[in-house]
Amino acid sequence: MKVRRASREDAELLWKWRNDATVRASAFSGDLIPWETHDVWFASRLEDVGCRMYILEELDAPVAQVRYERTEAATADLGGISVASTHRRRGFGTVALRMTLPTAMEELEVDRIRAFVKLDNVGSAAMFEAAAFWRCGEDRRSNTPCHRYEYPGCG
Q1: Distance between CA 147 and CA 12 in Å, rounded?
Q2: C-alpha distances out from residue 12 to 8, 64, 88, 91, 144, Å
Q3: Taking a C-beta distance cutoff of 8 angstroms, is the pair 84, 63 a contact?
Q4: Torsion angle in degrees (nearest 10) through CA of 14, 20, 25, 29
Q5: 3-state DSSP call for residue 80?
Q6: Are the C-beta atoms of residues 118 and 140 closer than 8 Å to each other?
Q7: Could you read off the pLDDT of 16-73 as tens digits, one per residue?
Q8: For residue 2, with 0-12 CB atoms within 10 Å meaning exposed, 13-18 middle and 19 or more buried, which class applies?
Q9: pTM for the complete prediction?
């Protein structure tokens, strides 16, 4: 297992992962994303100093991605996490979080990471809890009720 920063070459792969039906069902916006929209967005995320995107690889093949976005001076939000459809339900999301959290926190100069999970998304909730996130209450994202998770604990 290894982690690397996302690069321009990952744009199409992450676009396909984002438009996967299962990923869209758990996202706060389940709309299909046109390639042109994704391509512009992806380029802007790579250039943003407040954003880090990482790819988890197994045997040099991408299996998961994690994106962190600094939102406040000492806090970043987990902007997205997805696992390739062929590798789901095998713990890769948890591994990706555990392997990227320390680096993301150091590079973004934050001491807290927040994640927001739809109330009915039991799989993501279990993944965050397995990666040592704490459930710290409820919130709303895109007018959708959700659980708020924090790492390293509720602050």
Answers
A1: 30
A2: 9, 14, 19, 24, 28
A3: yes
A4: 50
A5: strand
A6: no
A7: 999 999 899 889 988 999 999 999 999 999 999 999 999 999 999 999 999 999 998 8
A8: exposed
A9: 0.94
